[in-house]
Amino acid sequence: MASLPPARRRRLRTWAPTPHSTNDEGRLRAVSSDGNDPGLRDLASNDYLNLARHPALLEAAGAAMHEQGVGSGGSRLVSGSRPVHQQLEADLSTWLGWQRVLLFPSGFQANLAAVSALADRHTTVLADRLIHHSLLVGVQASGARLKRFAHNDLNHLERHLQQVRTNRPNQPLLVLSESLFSMEGTSPDLAGLSALCSRFHAQLLIDEAHALGVLGPGGRGLTAALAQPEANAGAGVTMVSGTFGKAFGSGGAFLACDEALGERLLQTSGAFRYTTALAPPLAAAALAALALIRSQPHWGQELVAKAEHWRDAIAAAGWPRPGGKGPILPLLVGDDQAALDLQQQLEADGVLSIAIRPPTVPEGSARLRLVLHRQQSDDTLALLLRRLKATRHP
Question: Could you confirm whether 241 is annotated as catalytic?
Fold first, then answer.
């Protein structure tokens, strides 16, 4: 640890939400600050739809806590399964168009379970170079052989697939990608990706954690756009993982798949079997969030439009236009210390955006990860632009 450069050293900071109405974009205050501190405008959290403190979620979580307890007290296969778990799984299955949904306490855990269910030591896994760490840990735990392809580069993936099929015609294959990459804000060509997997008889696991609730038809994620009339879900996709800790404003996660895979998970997944079930208040809040998202399908579309406006404004300020579509806008800086300096300057201006440095992102690509929310105000954009115009882009 002594050799860790100061600009790479992480520091744990604790934040408290400031009181705000449901019409306010919300602010976060460092607990070490003055109690009268109005807080920083939040451009850091993944609460894309501002649901974490929505009255419907607070009410649902409170009712579940009083009726069912704070924790479930056991795994789903012992005594921890509650009616709210069953209802959330059923409603998600209907909304997403998958035959089976299983809940997990965290997205990391769900991804471990997903890869373990789809790969073993006989499998070759082809993974986008920028996939989430949880998926890589899942590959390592499965014992599968790992190959990486360049970010969102289907030509590179095709060459890998062709090579494996030529050298090992019967090799089980699994491809891993995300529908919205959390640090890049970019998305793959999912139609092309699923077509490649079908052509080479490869399974396809898509992590929809950051897209769900915002992108795709009705906020159902980008895999929903692949649905065929005769299919139950995204054509060419084997399994989808998603979380409730982002656009849903709650906590926990799920896997969605066909009936056969769902039964395999139930019978064989240690990550599902040997863990305490998702806390009932979190499940109830996620269920309330799902009802809101289904009733307000325009929320995601409006957030995407807002994000496009911000991208245009950042480019007009002389900075590279953030790639992709959706609420994640990476502001590329390059140098670790320069990214930290810009974070501190924005905090002095009243805006919170966290500097993301290697190894979370590739070497030389430190950045500020700007995260937009449904109720983000134009005032926040004005504060950001004022600082960007005053700061020379590296």
Answer: no
The pLDDT of residue 234 is 54
Choose the catalytic residue: 42, 89, 178, 208: 178
pLDDT digits (tens, 9 = 90+) for 7-24: 788 888 888 887 654 446
Q: What is the CATH number of the domain that holds 324?
A: 3.90.1150.10
In the predicted model, is pLDDT for residue 35 greater than 70?
no
How many whole angstroms separate alpha carbon 300 and alpha carbon 49? 8
CA distances from 58 to 26, 44, 190, 348, 375 (A): 16, 22, 35, 32, 18
Residues 179 and 195 grouped into a single domain: yes
Give the per-residue pLDDT at 36.
62
How far is residue 257's CA from residue 114's CA, in Å, rounded to a whole number? 10
CB 363 within 8 A of CB 290: no
DSSP assigned state of 194: H
Average pLDDT, the chain: 91
335 among known catalytic residues: no
Mean pLDDT of 236-247: 96
Query: Which has the closest alpha carbon to 333: 321, 324, 325, 342?
Result: 342
pLDDT of residue 133 exceeding 80: yes
Burial class (CB in 10 A: 0-12, 13-18, 19+), 350: middle
330 and 248 in a common domain: no
Same domain, 228 and 326: no
Q: Are both 281 and 380 inside the same structural domain?
A: no
Is residue 278 located within the same domain as residue 302?
no
Catalytic, 210? Answer yes
Task: Say which of 207, 241, 306, 325 is annotated catalytic.
Answer: 207
Q: Following DSSP, what letter does each residue of 270-320 receive, concatenated?
A: HHHHTSPPPPHHHHHHHHHHHHHHHH-THHHHHHHHHHHHHHHHHHHTTSP
Task: Tell me, yes or no, if 85 is annotated catalytic.
Answer: no
**pTM for the structure as a whole:** 0.93
DSSP run (H or E) holding 64 = helix 55-68
Catalytic member of 54, 132, 306, 325? 132
Q: Which domain holds residue 374?
A: 33-53+297-390
Give the domain-ending residue among 271, 295, 319: 295
Q: How many domains does the chain have?
A: 2
